[in-house]
Automatic annotation (TrEMBL):
It comes from Hyphomonas polymorpha PS728. InterPro entries: MdtP/NodT-like, OMP_efflux. GO terms for molecular function: efflux transmembrane transporter activity. Residues 373-413 are annotated as: Disordered. Transmembrane segments: none annotated. Residues 386-401 have a biased composition (Basic and acidic residues). Signal peptide: none annotated. This is Copper tolerance protein. It comes from the Bacteria. Belongs to the outer membrane factor (OMF) (TC 1.B.17) family. PANTHER family: BLR4935 PROTEIN, OUTER MEMBRANE CATION EFFLUX PROTEIN.
Length: 413
């Protein structure tokens, strides 16, 4: 997952476009810290030797030049905060796309193996039926199970292509480069240690990039509030000087022009006040949303982690033991085909439930990564690399026991 995020940062056109806001903000900052540009006008009549030079500049820009520079710096800081939040959101989106595709590939592998086992069992049941060892209804039940596993495999197969295309698009890869993409085929097991939810929520609220972006917007609004109130009252204030030359610079004059609004700036000041209140409410809502997102994602991740480990350590081993016992009873003719098929179905369902819990865990972790680095609040956290979890330790759910009907054919044939 970390490699996928790094790749997206390098290749995604969407991310590159989003980050260009920094270049735009930097250009605005340069404009704000430089003095206002004067306007020069040179005129000469068609007759005579009189040459006129008019120089004018915005008086408000000159007077409030330091305030404009401060507002420009606040705007740059706001752009940086928004860019950091964009990167965090993009990283989470990449992780989620990676998780969904890997889960689809793993589910397909699960149902492919279940389909292969179902087809092998169908062949064995067909031989047993032709030999007169089982009833027609038992043979049909085995055929039905094999057909169900084929349908499940087809459904899972239909998820792989769309999730891969989504991942390729979010990585920003061309089709040619996407063909060289090498992806893991299974999700790593959840972390053994529980999340320190209390510390995580506290740190996430302190360091939330989404909240930081809303706070930066608030500071940007506050930095320009005084200047905008004055502009609402005075609108345009222009200082000018005029020089005339007739052989020598002999005449000069100075002027000061003001544009006073009819409403005396009431509408402009009201707009500034409303925008300040709007920014404050957005900041307050951003804090509430972040807290809710962090809490819900942390709770989902922890519950999914516990559930996945329960399936791995309890449900899967128990389903395997039950399946082995049912096979022995079936071979001893103590139970019928229906109980055997139900046990095989339960074995597949246990694998599916484990995979769904693992997927929910990693998806919730990705949502948490929008606000805080989760690995800082757990011990022995996984990095998302397949090599970190050998299959023998992960207790893979898609490894089914040898198909019992192969032995049934030998025992009863």
């Amino acid at each position: 997952m970390d490699e996928a995020v790094a790749l997206a940062f390098l290749t995604s056109p969407r991310l590159q476009a989003e980050l260009e806001v920094l270049g735009i903000a930097r250009a605005d900052l340069i404009s704000s810290v430089l003095p206002t540009a004067p306007f020069l006008e040179i005129s000469r009549p068609t007759s005579g030797n009189i040459l006129s030079l008019d120089v004018s500049a915005s008086l408000l820009d000159l007077i409030f030049w330091p305030q404009r520079a401060q507002a420009g710096k606040a705007a740059m800081e706001a752009a940086q905060a928004r860019a950091a939040a964009v990167l965090a959101d993009a990283a989470a989106d990449v992780r989620i796309a990676f998780i969904e595709h890997t889960a689809a590939v793993q589910a397909l592998d699960l149902y492919r193996q279940a389909e292969a086992a179902g087809q092998a069992a169908q062949l064995a049941a067909e031989a047993m039926f032709e030999a007169g060892n089982i009833a027609r209804v038992d043979y049909d039940r085995q055929r039905q199970f094999a057909a169900q596993m084929t349908a499940e495999r087809m459904r899972a197969e239909g998820q792989v292509g769309p999730t891969r295309e989504r991942l390729i698009a979010i990585l920003g890869l061309t089709q040619e480069r996407a063909e060289k993409l090498q992806l893991v085929s299974r999700l790593p097991a959840p972390a053994e240690a529980a999340l320190d939810t209390g510390r995580l929520i506290g740190a996430a609220m302190d360091d939330s990039l989404q909240v930081a972006a809303a706070e930066a917007d608030m500071r940007q609004m506050a930095a320009g509030r005084g200047l905008r109130n004055i502009e609402a009252l005075m609108r345009d204030a222009e200082f000018g000087a005029e020089f005339e030359r007739d052989g020598s610079w002999s005449d000069e004059s100075y002027s000061l022009g003001l544009a006073l609004p009819v409403d005396l700036g009431v509408a402009g000041r009201q707009r500034v006040a409303s925008e300040m209140r709007q920014a404050f409410q957005r900041l307050h809502q951003a804090r509430l949303d972040s807290l809710a997102d962090i809490r819900s994602s942390a709770q989902t991740a922890e519950s999914a982690r516990a559930l996945a480990l329960f399936h791995r350590d309890v449900s899967l081993p128990v389903s395997a033991e039950v399946f082995d016992g049912v096979v022995r009873d079936f071979n001893a003719m103590q139970i019928g085909m229906f109980e055997l098929l139900q046990s095989r179905r339960d074995r597949v369902d246990a694998g599916r439930d484990y995979l769904e819990a693992v997927t929910d865990y990693w998806r919730a972790r990705a949502e948490l990564e929008r606000h805080v680095r989760v690995s800082d609040f757990e011990s022995g956290a996984d990095t998302g690399n397949e090599d970190d979890h050998p299959q023998s330790e992960e207790k893979p759910v898609e490894h089914s026991p040898p198909d019992p009907n192969q032995h049934q054919g030998h025992d009863h044939g």
